[in-house]
């Protein structure tokens, strides 16, 4: 079976990802074969039946969130203006990465401003963004000055003072009333978020059209909104509990008795992590087991499972099988310490 290959260093996911997506042999309809390399160039031994791919897509979406392609607050980003990225047609590649991630069972970027998202999918004709969303401090302060003008005379003075900036956006106009300040500010915001980025925006949309994903966005914008826009984290102990199916020994066996005891430790551990964390989160547990830190839009296959190990000191994970192997330990305190240590020392911890 053909596949698209990626060689990824967790410390610089974007570099390997871009090479892979630009490769002439890349086919978005094929499965992804991901190999992680460590810092000294050795290859992690792993057959990719899904786990490495999901981890790669998770790390890639995290890299995109903080990349130069988007700007703004963490919970409300817009497409940025980067001439070098535009020349390299990288906005197209970013759009393609997002489409491939979601269709192949990975996460979405979960960082877009709702205003940007609704404009992207065609629900609105303009981006209605508040001044506070403009990341450029100097520009933001000028627009706030104009907004706060109290008289027509003050407004005209400010417009003349910052005429070069306002004229760049084509929003400089003959000011007849104090209310004209809204037209100046709104016009500049439209130019800043929409018109100056027109070519990059179109190429980003072209990339999203990969695997017919953009058509799905247009048809079902509300369904995909949680995967494209920021939302407050709502992963709970109950959700994680229901996600993993325990594989228990036959009823009445001595193994079953031990497994049920440790299963209780596991459930209490999820509650403890949610309540106090101790440097750990439920997202870390999900990432450890599946390579994802959120439940994807596509169904998580195979079904995540819990298994039990008698002679292990720490938990182990098989991300290809979405499985956590829990150690059978004598007390909850030892179990909790072992879980924290095992997850924190897993490859990639702290990079997502």
Automatic annotation (TrEMBL):
Q: Where is the HECT domain?
A: 24-352
User: tRNA-binding as a keyword?
Assistant: no
One GO MF annotation is: ubiquitin protein ligase activity
Catalytic activity line of the entry: S-ubiquitinyl-[E2 ubiquitin-conjugating enzyme]-L-cysteine + [acceptor protein]-L-lysine = [E2 ubiquitin-conjugating enzyme]-L-cysteine + N(6)-ubiquitinyl-[acceptor protein]-L-lysine
Where are the active-site residues found? 320 (glycyl thioester intermediate)
Annotated keywords: Transferase, Ubl conjugation pathway
Q: What Pfam families would the database entry show?
A: HECT
Q: Does the keyword Cell membrane apply?
A: no
One GO BP annotation here?
Answer: protein polyubiquitination
Q: Which InterPro entries match?
A: E3A/B/C-like (IPR044611), HECT_dom (IPR000569), Hect_E3_ubiquitin_ligase (IPR035983)
Name the EC number(s): 2.3.2.26
Q: What is this protein called?
A: HECT-type E3 ubiquitin transferase
Source organism (scientific name): Carassius auratus
Primary gene name:
LOC113070352
């Amino acid at each position: 079976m053909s596949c698209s290959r990626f060689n990824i260093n967790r410390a610089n996911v974007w570099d390997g990802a871009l090479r892979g997506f630009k490769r002439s042999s890349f086919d978005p309809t094929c499965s992804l074969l991901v190999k992680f390399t460590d810092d000294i160039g050795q290859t992690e031994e792993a057959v990719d039946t899904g786990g490495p791919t999901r981890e790669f897509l998770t790390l890639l979406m995290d890299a995109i969130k903080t990349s130069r392609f988007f700007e703004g607050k963490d919970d409300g980003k817009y497409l940025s203006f980067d001439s070098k990225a535009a020349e390299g047609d990288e906005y197209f590649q970013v759009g393609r990465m997002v489409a491939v991630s979601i269709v192949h069972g990975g996460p979405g970027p979960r960082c877009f401003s709702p205003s940007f998202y609704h404009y992207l999918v065609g629900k609105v004709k303009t981006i209605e963004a508040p001044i506070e969303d403009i990341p450029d401090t100097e520009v933001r302060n000028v627009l706030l000055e104009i907004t706060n003008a109290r008289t027509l005379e003050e407004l005209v003075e400010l417009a003349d003072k910052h005429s070069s900036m306002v004229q760049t956006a084509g929003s400089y106009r003959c000011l007849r009333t104090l209310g004209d300040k809204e037209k100046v500010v709104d016009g500049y915001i439209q130019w800043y978020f929409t018109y100056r980025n027109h070519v990059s925006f179109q190429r980003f949309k072209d990339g999203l059209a990969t695997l017919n994903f953009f058509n799905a966005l247009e048809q079902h914008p509300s369904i995909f909104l949680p995967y494209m826009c920021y939302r407050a984290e709502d992963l709970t102990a109950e959700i994680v509990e229901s996600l993993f199916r325990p594989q228990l020994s036959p009823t009445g066996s001595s193994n079953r008795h031990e497994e049920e005891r440790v299963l209780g430790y596991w459930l209490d551990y999820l509650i403890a992590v949610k309540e106090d964390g101790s440097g750990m989160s439920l997202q870390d547990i999900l990432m450890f087991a599946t390579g994802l830190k959120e439940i994807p839009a596509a169904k998580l296959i195979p079904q995540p499972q819990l298994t039990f190990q008698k002679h292990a000191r720490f938990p182990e994970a098989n991300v290809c099988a979405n499985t956590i192997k829990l150690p059978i330990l004598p007390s909850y305190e030892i179990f909790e310490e072992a879980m924290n240590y095992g997850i924190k020392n897993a490859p990639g911890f702290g990079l997502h």
